[in-house]
Amino acid sequence: MVFTPLLTSTCVGTLEFRSVAEPVSRIQPALVTAPNSYFYLAYCKGVDLDKHEIYCEIVSNSGLPQEPYRFKVAYDKLVIAAGADDI
Known about the structure:
15% helix, alpha+beta
């Protein structure tokens, strides 16, 4: 999801976060239609620069206690966007 400037209102509880989020597939249709293009909505828990792998984790927001789902994603090229921590 890509957040609009209304994100600050969600922090204080004025708005529900789902009301200010736009599905990425609507903004970047190539993520859905281009071959070998993927989008993962997950936390990045680590990067192995030697193996070219990113370690990800998804935690369900169902409210039930459960173990997070962990997986790794191989990459050819890695772009770390603004807001990321240094490796």
